[in-house]
Amino acid sequence: MKPGDTLMKHYLQFKDFRAEEYAYLLERTRIIKTRFKNYEKYQPLVDRTLAMIFEKASTRTRVSFEAGMYQMGGSVVHLTTGDSQLGRAEPIEDSARVISRMVDLVMIRTYEQAKLEAFAAHSRVPVINGLTNEYHPCQILADIFTFIEHRGSIQGKVVAWVGDGNNMANTWLQAADILGFTLHVSTPGGYEIDPAVAGVQNPGCLKLFKSPAAACAGAHLVTTDVWTSMGYEAENEARRAAFADWCVDVQMMQLAQPDALFMHCLPAHRGEEVAAEVIDGPQSVVWDEAENRMHVQKALMEYLLIGRVG
Ligand code: CP
Ligand code: NVA
């Protein structure tokens, strides 16, 4: 997009944007975050409204979008399945037609990606994925920004994913493909990542490992996630048994680069997918990672609503 160009775009998965758009967004994030830290008012979204639809629980996604939108001068409407007609089987297409006539932007957290896509197909305004079973692009955008803040460019680096081949893993794989880094993945049998879900162009960006320790060897970033994602709670016991050896611990971190970072999208379960010494230790940047959700999403909302600025 050129300055002032407001051709409508959605952000439904990480691969919806090109590397050059990410370079722009990450630089805008840096500027927007610096202004926020200096208490400089920046309100380009006055009179704009964001609708946030949650069909699953959230702390970070809600607070970061809501606070970010208010800081930029806009306002928000918060809907959940329980307090709207979404929970009473109103078709998603009808909900999209109605909601998008009244607001300027929609963020949705739901189950199947297909539901998000159906909403977007019937929306008059841009739609953002706030997490689906398949992807979590806003989180990976924050993670990449956090990596760059601490270590510089992620191009050519190695990111180790230890754990479930879930929405986070799929999105890391899309990011590796687009931004030119390598993703090492180790999952228990039966919980593998499916590269077809990510739809990568460059298969060389993915390396699979049976052992989580081997996946961590030489990594610049080690990251993991809960063993049981939202919507999969019925599998909790089976997963607890299957994932027992996929806890990121101090030994695994010692195999990574000496200055490797640790990330987790949160919420975390200490003693399950990560040892307390790791998530609360000096290599962990999880609190920066959480805060950066707000800064990257402010840049994203600015981009989707007013295009390129400056
Ligand atoms: N990481 C993340 O999306 O957190 P919430 O589930 O709290 O929104
Ligand atoms: N994979 C997790 C991420 C939570 C932010 C889930 O989908 O529940």
TrEMBL record:
Enzyme class, spelled out: transferase
Domain Aspartate/ornithine carbamoyltransferase carbamoyl-P binding: 9-149
InterPro entries, A to Z: Asp/Orn_carbamoyltranf_P-bd (IPR006132), Asp/Orn_carbamoylTrfase (IPR006130), Asp/Orn_carbamoylTrfase_sf (IPR036901), Asp_carbamoyltransf_Asp/Orn-bd (IPR006131), Orn/put_carbamltrans (IPR002292), OTCase_ArgI (IPR024904)
Localization: Cytoplasm
Coiled-coil stretches noted in the UniProt entry, renumbered to this chain: none
GO biological process: citrulline biosynthetic process; L-arginine biosynthetic process via ornithine
Sorted UniProt keywords: Cytoplasm, Transferase
Positions with a binding annotation for L-ornithine: 167, 225, 229-230
Record GO terms (molecular function): amino acid binding; ornithine carbamoyltransferase activity
EC number(s) recorded for this UniProt protein: 2.1.3.3
SUPFAM superfamilies for the chain: Aspartate/ornithine carbamoyltransferase
Domain (Aspartate/ornithine carbamoyltransferase Asp/Orn-binding): residue spans on this chain: 156-304
PROSITE patterns the UniProt entry points to: CARBAMOYLTRANSFERASE
UniProt: carbamoyl phosphate binding residues: 58-61, 85, 109, 136-139, 265-266, 293
A cellular component term, taken from the record's GO annotations: cytoplasm
Catalytic activity, reaction form: carbamoyl phosphate + L-ornithine = L-citrulline + phosphate + H(+)
Pathway terms, separated by semicolons: Amino-acid biosynthesis; L-arginine biosynthesis; L-arginine from L-ornithine and carbamoyl phosphate: step 1/3
PANTHER family attached to this UniProt entry: ORNITHINE CARBAMOYLTRANSFERASE, MITOCHONDRIAL, ORNITHINE TRANSCARBAMYLASE, MITOCHONDRIAL
Job of this protein: Reversibly catalyzes the transfer of the carbamoyl group from carbamoyl phosphate (CP) to the N(epsilon) atom of ornithine (ORN) to produce L-citrulline.
Family that this chain belongs to: Belongs to the aspartate/ornithine carbamoyltransferase superfamily. OTCase family.
HAMAP family in the record: OTCase
Protein name as catalogued: Ornithine carbamoyltransferase
Organism: Rubrivivax albus
